[in-house]
Amino acid sequence: MLNAAMSHSKIFLPIFFCLTSHHSFAISISEAVKQKLISITVHSYDDSKDSVFHPSYYGSCIVFDIRNLKANTLELTEDAGRFLIPNDSAEQRMIITSPVTLALLAHQQKFVPVYAMCTEAHDAGPSNQTKFTYGEIAQANLLKLVKMIAKNKFQDKAAQNAVWCITDNFSPSTIYSTDTAEAHLLCKLVCALKNIPYAPGIAPEPDIDFPHSARINGYFTYTIARTHTIDLRIYNQQGQLLKDVVHGEKQTPGTYNYNYEADIPVNDDRHPPVMIVRFYFDGKIFAEKKHVLR
Questions:
Q1: Is position 15 within any domain?
Q2: Domain range for residue 109?
Q3: Which residues neighbour 69 within 8 Å (Cβ) at sequence distance 6 or greater?
Q4: 277, 286, 213: which is closest to 245 by C-alpha?
Q5: Confidence of residue 121 (pLDDT cuts 50, 70, 90)
Q6: Given this model, what pLDDT does residue 208 score?
Q7: In the sheet where 228-236 sits, what is the strand order?
């Protein structure tokens, strides 16, 4: 009877699961370097293979080449405000203008674009080969401005000029943007930081001699016997589109003296590039002019 009862009973045996995992933890990039958890190379963005030009001294102009040296996943961060020091002292010292966050799996390598801006207006723009080392965190007024830029995602020429107002004593009147709300926010903060009067409602004027950019202008004279679609584009010597000045404009028969003007950022002042202005009728090149930026 006992054996029969046992034959119909259910026997429960404990089952143990062994779970393995790779733990991850968060750490700043600068601290991860000190602890030798990662290797990192910081260099300028190489736009030589891009179809669109990228300024070398603001925007996502820096690349972090990072490799995880450990078997754990790393959650890496870096706050805005960190200086990046070029290997050539004649080139511009940069500052990170947007927080950096990324995850690296065990032994993984990533190339991470990083937003940065120049803090030395009169030095040369970084070249494609420029390497950087980690510097200190900015202090006082510059750090306050950079945190505001990061918070509002103002990654453009207006914000770059605001940085130069602090680092190179530019006038707040040089902070210009077609986005007037952005220009006023930047100008108001810069004036407060520099303890100078700010007059709300007065738009700042564009800076004609914007550092590390050059203004080109010219004209095309022509006569057309029928309606054409007009395009005007500016390229560099590598065939990269710098600016789409006119796009799909209709022109009726007549004689025209077509003027153009554009501010073009310069990557490296020691090697002035040639800009090529191309004028198109109905998608086909009608004429072109070359400008050497100096």
A1: no
A2: 23-138
A3: 36, 37, 38, 39, 107
A4: 277
A5: confident
A6: 41
A7: 241-251, 228-236, 274-281, 284-292
Residue 49 has pLDDT above 70, yes or no: no
**pLDDT value of position 294:** 59
Cα distance between residue 46 and residue 63, in whole Å = 9
In a shared domain, residues 75 and 180:
no
pLDDT of residue 200: 64
- pLDDT tens digit string along 57-81? 888 889 999 999 998 899 999 999 9
Using alpha carbons, list the distances in angstroms from residue 261 to 118, 133, 230, 234, 248. 25, 38, 16, 10, 17
285's enclosing H/E stretch is strand 284-292
Helix axes 140-152, 157-167, angle to 10 degrees: 170
Region at 187 (left for phi over 0; alpha for psi -120 to 50; beta for the rest) = alpha
CA dihedral (192, 197, 203, 204) positive or negative: negative
Residue 255 lies in a domain: yes
Count of structural domains within the chain: 3
Q: Is residue 11 part of a domain?
A: no
Residues 213-241: what's their mean pLDDT? 82
More confident residue, 281 or 245: 281
Q: Reduced to 3 states, what is the DSSP secondary structure of residue 157?
A: helix
Instruction: Determine the 3-state secondary structure of 23 from DSSP.
Output: coil
Same-domain check for residues 80 and 54: yes
The overall longest dimension of the chain from CA atoms, in Å, is: 115
Q: What is the pLDDT, as a whole number, of residue 53?
A: 65
Beta strands 38-44 and 131-137 are antiparallel
Spatial distance between the Cα atoms of 137 and 61, rounded to a whole number of angstroms: 19
Spatial neighbors of 155 by CB under 8 A, at least 6 apart, are 58, 59, 60, 97, 98, 115, 149
Per the document, the length of the chain is 294
* Co-location of 130 and 30 in the same domain: yes
